[in-house]
Amino acid sequence: MPSPDWHAPAVHERIEALVTLPGSKSLTNRFLVLAALANGTSRLRRPLRSRDTLLMAEALRSLGAGIDDGTTDSAGADWIVTPASLRGGGTVDCGLAGTVMRFLPPVAALCDGPVVFDGDEQARVRPMGPVLDALRILGATIDDGGRGTLPFTVHGAGSVPGGEVAIDASASSQFVSALLLAGPRYEQGVTVRHVGPPVPSEPHIEMTVETLRDAGAIVDDGEPDTWRVEPSEINALDVQVEPDLSNAAPFLAAALVTGGQVTVPGWPQHTTQAGDAIRDILDAMGADVSLTREGLTVTGTGDVSGVDVDLHDASELTPVVAAIAALADSPTVIRGVAHIRGHETDRLAALSRELGALGSDVHETDDGLHIRPRPLTGGTFHTYSDHRMVMAAAVLGLRVPGVVVENVGTVAKTLPTFVELWDGMLGGSGHPARTADAASA
Ligand SMILES: O=C(O)C1=C[C@@H](OP(=O)(O)O)[C@@H](O)[C@H](O)C1
Ligand SMILES: C=C(OP(=O)(O)O)C(=O)O
């Protein structure tokens, strides 16, 4: 059911704001999976509550895990996850979440009966085949009608032999992460070898390896494109979720394109989040960027430069980077992101169409976009059920009056409070630093 349109606010003055963001989708969903497979009760502090993570929690509940809201602090309640023996018989709604549709089939294979997977219509074209084929080789039974996409049924048999498997993960790093996360619970563990063009979004695999190791699993990633997880228990977790750095990108971009200043508190000094790359990208596009104990501060200098950037490792950032590029003083080349045609929508086609409709000169290549800035005019920006298209439109709207964002509610996939946070950030422009807080939004 589409949500209303949103008139993206334009601003004439420099933005000055402190924007506190909710937790990372990628970390929250990894922690939920590991906690459901662990040997005791886990606590997740400051988890993200968004469509993707609520779907993950609901799916794990249907497989038997207990997930309760615990004590409340200013950022909301913790999640308390109590594992139980994994049961079949249920249905998992994946929505449009890559993490749910890829990370849970390897868990469902451990259940004591069949688990049906389905999702949004758009989810039925997202690539899944390599995970399903790998699971079959590792000993699971799956019925997907030969399609290699949703919907499908995983016939859990209570255990999975595991072993070694070769897959082509060039369409998504999530194929590798999925097999590794459940790997410790397979009888022989799991060894995944990637064979094919380079795997995208490698930091997300590093995130998987780090979260597994932090939970006591033994992971060998010493050989390129090969990951080995030994069979072992997964220890219960007590973790605090970092802010989502990819969701921070549009807010930081707002500082650059308005010549203002935005600080995101709690930016980690060390992280495996791919979104951390936004620091270097904004720097290359003309911002002053400084990371201190207080957080990440981005200050616009008045210049917005085009860049030649390979986003293979941080492809989630493409829509926001493309929006900045359309407002820049010089052309931009975005490379290395052919696989984002299989994200929430074909992002290269969607960006090319929507930026073009506002007046930008955009050329779609096999693996990216060439963007030559032109004067832009307002109009409807279609979002294709893609949260990051909403974020891109909001950035454009700052400098282009009359941008109307269609189906703004789709941003709830990873940031349900986006509009409140955006309004909070803008509310005080021209005044002493404004505060937009995830907890109060
Ligand atoms: O593992 C994860 O949490 C993710 C991996 C990446 O997927 P791809 O490798 O398909 O790009 C990323 O784009 C996605 O938003 C989240
Ligand atoms: C690609 C994304 O999501 P997903 O986890 O559904 O793949 C994204 O959030 O940009």
From TrEMBL:
UniProt key word S-adenosyl-L-methionine: no
- The record lists phosphoenolpyruvate as bound by K25, G98, R126, Q174, R347, R388, K413
**Recorded GO MF terms:** 3-phosphoshikimate 1-carboxyvinyltransferase activity
Q: Where is this protein localized, as stated in its record?
A: Cytoplasm
Q: Which PROSITE patterns match?
A: EPSP_SYNTHASE_1 (PS00104), EPSP_SYNTHASE_2 (PS00885)
Cite the annotated pathway. Metabolic intermediate biosynthesis; chorismate biosynthesis; chorismate from D-erythrose 4-phosphate and phosphoenolpyruvate: step 6/7
Q: Entry's Gene3D superfamilies?
A: Enolpyruvate transferase domain (3.65.10.10)
The record places domain Enolpyruvate transferase at: 13-420
| This enzyme's EC code(s) | 2.5.1.19
Q: State if Transferase is listed as a keyword.
A: yes
List the InterPro entries hit by this protein, alphabetically.
Answer: Enolpyruvate_Tfrase_dom, Enolpyruvate_Tfrase_sf, EPSP_synthase, EPSP_synthase_CS, RNA3'P_cycl/enolpyr_Trfase_a/b
User: Any idea which residues are catalytic in this one?
Assistant: E316 (proton acceptor)
Gene Ontology cellular-component terms listed? cytoplasm
Q: Where does 3-phosphoshikimate bind?
A: K25, S26, R30, S172, S173, Q174, S201, E316, H343
Q: What class of enzyme is it?
A: transferase
Alphabetized, the UniProt keywords read: Amino-acid biosynthesis, Aromatic amino acid biosynthesis, Cytoplasm, Transferase
Q: Which reaction does it catalyse?
A: 3-phosphoshikimate + phosphoenolpyruvate = 5-O-(1-carboxyvinyl)-3-phosphoshikimate + phosphate
Q: Tell me, which GO biological process terms does this entry list?
A: amino acid biosynthetic process; aromatic amino acid family biosynthetic process; chorismate biosynthetic process
Q: What is its main location?
A: cytoplasm
What subunit structure does UniProt give?
Monomer.
As for what it does, the entry says: Catalyzes the transfer of the enolpyruvyl moiety of phosphoenolpyruvate (PEP) to the 5-hydroxyl of shikimate-3-phosphate (S3P) to produce enolpyruvyl shikimate-3-phosphate and inorganic phosphate.
Q: Which NCBIfam families match?
A: aroA
Q: Which family does it belong to?
A: Belongs to the EPSP synthase family.
Matching entries from HAMAP family are given as: EPSP_synth
* Name of this protein: 3-phosphoshikimate 1-carboxyvinyltransferase
Q: Whose protein is this, by species?
A: Pedococcus cremeus
What taxonomic lineage is listed for the species of origin?
Bacteria, Bacillati, Actinomycetota, Actinomycetes, Micrococcales
